[in-house]
Design goal:
Blueprint: E1 16-21, E2 24-31, E3 34-39, H1 50-53, H2 56-65, H3 68-83, E4 88-94, E5 97-104, E6 114-121, E7 126-133, H4 143-188
Amino acid sequence: MKHEICKLADIPQAGSLIAPFFGREVHVYRSGDRIRAAANVCLHFGGPLDQIHDSAKRLKSWGLTESPEEVATRALSIIDQAAHPAASAIVLDTAMGHELIAAREVTSADDPKLIEKLTLEDEESSVGTLLIGRRSDGNRYNKQEIEAIREIVPSLAEALRVARGRFSRESAMQQQLEQMAARLAQLEGGTPKPA
């Protein structure tokens, strides 16, 4: 039996639409060229998956103001509250390899608890990897939960790319200011004042 939930034109190209359905809420979203719907709850713990679906704007804002580590930590918190992984981590690609920038319940990206690996990529390229363990009840994620987690990937990748670029520029600028202060102090015959 089929029931109309919403109009096709109302479904956003990115993110989801929360619609009432027989007294409950469902997320209606696009997955490639297909339209899908999922209950607005984590089926195992009762937590709303919309915390993940609605995170894109927050991630974009954090990318403009926070360090990559803070963006990653906040993203893991969103995933924790909605999907309840027993462990999670974010690894950022760097010029020298890979760097673990945020983790929950693990100390290494190689920890065997981390069973799901999602490449963090946006329209430009990959910036790292999101690693998650089984749900805290020990079970694997169902298809709806994995799709909800995958929905955060492009926004998280973009936020990390922006934060890394901004943080790198700010660090370089701070280093230049410190060098100029040291040189100025040297020219004046004194000791440099901290920047």
